[in-house]
Amino acid sequence: MDPTRAIEAACVASLRAYAPYSNFRVGAAALTDAGAVYAGCNVENASYGLSMCAERNAVGTMVAADDRNKIRLVAVVSPDSAPCFPCGACRQVLREFGCVEVVVLDSSNNPQSYPLDALLPHAFGPENL
Q1: Would you call 96 a catalytic residue per the annotation?
Q2: Among the options 55, 96, 101, 127, which is catalytic?
Q3: Domains, the chain, ordered by start
Q4: Of 17, 73, 75, 80, which is the most buried if we count CB atoms within 10 A?
Q5: 0.90 exceeded by pTM
Q6: Cα–Cα nearest to 38, from 14, 50, 53, 55
Q7: What's the N-to-C CA distance of the chain in angstroms?
């Protein structure tokens, strides 16, 4: 599946990030098996633990749209650092929604693709409950 639309949506979302404390803007976009794209950006909070990552905001947007398709891939972009990988918590949330692939831009703005299970080996999921 071509990640171009997801990368573009993640780039736009990254410019909308609310990052007054870290100045580290991140955008993410989830592309579902059905072809829908849901974007999110990071939203920081003065109480750091209440901040939300771009990837989790993208998943929240998908869920709020009542889309229950699996995530085929997620693109993660930052205009402030490349490559920009999902944190561990986001990797776990992406795993929950069936994400197969993570696409990041390298320092030359070329997309690089990684299987999620390589980024989160031995993941915990619903089948473990």
Answers
A1: no
A2: 55
A3: 4-128 (3.40.140.10)
A4: 75
A5: yes
A6: 55
A7: 31
